[in-house]
Amino acid sequence: MRYMPATISYLDPDAATSLVQLGETIAKRRRELKLSQTSVASAAHVARATVARIESGSQGVTIGGYAGVMGVLGLSLCTLVSPRAPSERDQPALTPFNIDVAKYPQLRALLWSVPDRQGGVRLTGIEALNVYERNWRHVDQAAMSSEERALVASLVEKFGNGVFLV
Description:
Elements: H1 13-32, H2 37-44, H3 48-55, H4 63-72, H5 77-81, H6 91-94, E1 99-100, H7 105-110, E2 122-123, H8 125-135, H9 146-159
Antiparallel strand pairs: 1-2
Helix pairs in contact: 2-3, 2-4, 8-9
């Protein structure tokens, strides 16, 4: 059985423009992380064509499709929709690259698809927590060093919302 994208009879021009901008933001983030549409689609449990349609701002993709792809990329619809002044809690995330992935073997293993450049891969605290949360089932907890356990605990304390347990 073949599914066709949903159609919408009318979408306000401003809303259509917002969808295109959202798609561009998603595509930019995917390229920053050096991920292919195929790998993002696999992680989000959608078709590669759906990722392409999302990146073009398609009106026919469900909000769940957008949210799933954004979650894989560490984006949140809430933060994109309602900008706010940064709080003290956000300050560590504003430092562009503060966690050296090479120092944490389990985190490095979770980012197997990201090529390790000469300078190494660096993530913000929120990005690192998102990677751990999305892929926790793949973490070999018995092999985690005490430094990596401390990193996860501090990320949860600073950026977690009380749901993620180490």
